[in-house]
Amino acid sequence: MKFNFEYLLSVMPRLIDASLVNIRLALIIMALSVLLGTGLTILRAAKLPVVNEVIAVVISFVRGTPLLIQIFIAYYVLPSVGLDMRPEVAGVAAIAFNSMIFVSETLRGGLATIDPGQIEASTALGLPPRAIWYKVVLPQLFRRVIPVLINEATIVVKGTALLSVITVVEVLRTAQQISAASYRPFETLLGAALIFLVMNLVISLVGKFAEARYAVSRA
Amino acid sequence: MTATLALKVEGLTKQFRGTTALDSVYLEIQPGEIVALIGPSGCGKSTFLRCLTWLEQPDDGFIEVAGQPFGRERIGAVVRRQSGREIDRIRPRIGLVFQQLNLWPHLTALENIVRPQIVVLKRPREEATRRARDLLARLGLADRAERYPHSLSGGQKQRVAIARALAMDPALMLFDEPTSALDPELVGEVLAVLRQLAEAGTTMLVVTHEIGFAANVADRIAFMDHGRIVEEGPARQLIDAPRDPRLKGFLDLVLSHRDGPAPPLA
């Protein structure tokens, strides 16, 4: 079968429509993982005895097992313990949980680069611990980890393709459906790949702007 | 004398794993007074400042800032440790200027001074900004307000750090070796700022190696060794006629590193 450029163009509108699902899910996942990852970082910085050991076990599980398996667990295993979620919800939960761990590890790495003297100065001025996190530590931390977060965002966008295996009708699943009907997997899968490429190029571009914007005030 | 002391320290003690860093330190500072704290390195000067701001929790002893108990208070015969929130509320009454300054690099000079006023003292932004600009102008930095710390010189950063502490209306300013992290040519600049503060009646406790500054600007000098204030008295008298042999030895050592007598700084 010859590659047919016309056919590729003809499937793009349906794939672009389906990409709205990936974009929506990726945005929700990133928002959740940054929010929860930040919370987890603050929790870990409190150095509570048992808590950090439990978190360490969870981290080694999330880091040491494939994301695909984690998605399967969320969708097929959790219902047996009473957590029956729609495919989209289970998928978002699995990827967000995975990504949260990576965001938290990134932030923890960045935390070591914040001069402890600044925190002492804040304490001496009477800033309560909450204000020190919100006004002093986190603003600097996020500026430093922007490149890593951008990288994580591209991983999340690509991760949404995995949700095709738990019946979420997104770009990849749509492409598979089209190719199953037309027997033209080459064009449709290439079309799906192009859509992911474009989404990630946009993310990289946004990242470049963000880095340039915050480079000014970097010490 | 019945006026409220700016600072009253009684029996302040701090131990680190068996070694005594502070050994029952007593010190009183009158409002408007400038006290220089001198002593060999490792004698406990920095620990003293850190305990005064409760960055380190002293093991024992009492601190009063402008008549207000700080950290621990006595209620009858009972000693109560204040909560973190109570401690945070009194902390701005003591302005500490760190040796390393510790400005916030992600904020401009102006914001470094404005933010703590808003967050801690709940001042409206306009008032905080006005005070910050006044202080910057007083310290000769009016044109540096919008700069970020990394584009300021060492001496300018120091003045921003001083302004940040002063903006909180402290009853007392603490300086941890204000000249030792600076290039030699900037030392004069900073000493001039301290002298300017002194003339404005700011109460100060200055940990310093600058015996010249201690002698010329400070009202009193306290000499610390092995975690104790061994000798204290009027600045000139203490330097010209030290009684304690350890102070004598320390002064000999410090002054012998200079070429001849200390030049007058005024």
TrEMBL record, chain B:
SMART domains, A to Z: AAA
Domain annotation ABC transporter: ranges: 7-251
UniProt protein name: Amino acid ABC transporter ATP-binding protein
Organism in which the protein naturally occurs: Ancylobacter radicis
Database matches in InterPro entries: AAA+_ATPase (IPR003593), ABC_ATPase_HisP-typ (IPR030679), ABC_transporter-like_ATP-bd (IPR003439), ABC_transporter-like_CS (IPR017871), MetN_ABC_transporter-like (IPR050086), P-loop_NTPase (IPR027417)
Keyword Transmembrane: no
Membrane topology: Peripheral membrane protein
Stated family: Belongs to the ABC transporter superfamily.
Main location: membrane
PANTHER family: AMINO ACID IMPORT ATP-BINDING PROTEIN (PTHR43166), GLUTAMATE_ASPARTATE IMPORT ATP-BINDING PROTEIN GLTL (PTHR43166:SF9)
GO molecular function, one term: ATP binding
Keywords: Amino-acid transport, ATP-binding, Cell membrane, Membrane, Nucleotide-binding, Transport
Pfam families for this protein: ABC_tran (PF00005)
Intracellular or extracellular location(s): Cell membrane
